[in-house]
Automatic annotation (TrEMBL):
Residue segments, region Disordered: 325-346
Gene that encodes it: tilS
Annotated localization: Cytoplasm
Source domain of life: Bacteria
Lineage of producing organism: Bacteria, Bacillati, Actinomycetota, Actinomycetes, Catenulisporales
tRNA(Ile)-lysidine/2-thiocytidine synthase N-terminal domain boundaries: 27-205
Enzyme class name: ligase
InterPro entries hit by this protein: Rossmann-like_a/b/a_fold, TilS/TtcA_N, tRNA_Ile_lys_synt, tRNA_Ile_lys_synt_N, tRNA_Ile_lys_synt_subst-bd
Name the UniProt record assigns to this protein: tRNA(Ile)-lysidine synthase
Free-text note on domains in this protein's UniProt record: The N-terminal region contains the highly conserved SGGXDS motif, predicted to be a P-loop motif involved in ATP binding.
Summary of the function given for this chain in its UniProt record: Ligates lysine onto the cytidine present at position 34 of the AUA codon-specific tRNA(Ile) that contains the anticodon CAU, in an ATP-dependent manner. Cytidine is converted to lysidine, thus changing the amino acid specificity of the tRNA from methionine to isoleucine.
The entry's keywords: ATP-binding, Cytoplasm, Ligase, Nucleotide-binding, tRNA processing
Catalytic activity: cytidine(34) in tRNA(Ile2) + L-lysine + ATP = lysidine(34) in tRNA(Ile2) + AMP + diphosphate + H(+)
Organism: Actinospica acidithermotolerans
Amino acid sequence: MGPVPAVAAIRLAVRTALADHEPGDLVLVACSGGADSLALACAAAFVAPRLGLRCGGVSVDHGLQDGSPERAHEVVELLRRRGLDPVESVAVTVGRAGGPEAAARAARYEALDHFAERYGARSVLLGHTRDDQAETVLLGLARGSGARSLAGMPAVFGPEDRYRRPLLGLPRSATAAACEAEGVEPWQDPHNADPAYTRSRVRHQLIPELAAVLGPGMPEALARTARMLREDTEALDEWAGREYAACQHAEGGLDARRLAELPTAVRRRVIRLAALRSGAPAGTLAASHIEAVDALVTGWRGQGPLQLPGAVEVRRTNGRLAFGETAPTAHSDGARGQQLTGAASK
């Protein structure tokens, strides 16, 4: 894709992503200064005023590299020159939970949420491309996390559909071409080429090897697969939501007999929803947890209660699954609780 067609394609993608906005709404662009987010910011600066929208930006400084505060300041100045307002840089502290990539992501979204709420933004635009989607699908496949992970990144998510990913249908090469056409020089994040990071190895080693064996259209095929799986997953989630309400037991919890009548994919989604609503953190609730709880429905042999992440206890009693806080004393059924562990799934 040439520079001029790339600019047009990105502007069209942004316009489509903002189609549900009202005049006067504020749109923010999360911009690191890399080619993807920089091309997105330039397109949003062009499109938003023509839709009667305000456009601002935020640059998150993770503090993980030398010179990151100065680089964030440079991004802020560039965005202001492009007419974005308000624009700020936000410094965050990256923890260790879940590994460096997950911790940085959690800190970033916390900062973006704060900035969006502070200014009353209608949406926050993120610069993930089709190539990022392909990488996400491969990472999910490696974890064995099921359809939810293989469905990749959603185009729209968050509270009141706050976060938008307009570029998921476009290749990474389009953003580089657009930056060239816009006359802006993107920053090259050394972490993106650091083999210490799993995503970097997928990007620079695995995907080129797969493309050499399966053909250059492999990233597009993976992204297309993710889109179809997301459609299926959303349909199953909607079905599970209806069944969750229908499976409520008069004494609380879920009716085990009714659960047993459901297809496995729906039943396990109902169990997952019940666990989440009982306080289990989504980021640590693994497929192995759900399968263990499912065995209380389909393979009931008098097992004791199970301990899920977030101090959530699940036990089967009187034909129902009861979800509650972990009891500090012995359990009434006389069986010892099982502490479950496992890698988290998306």
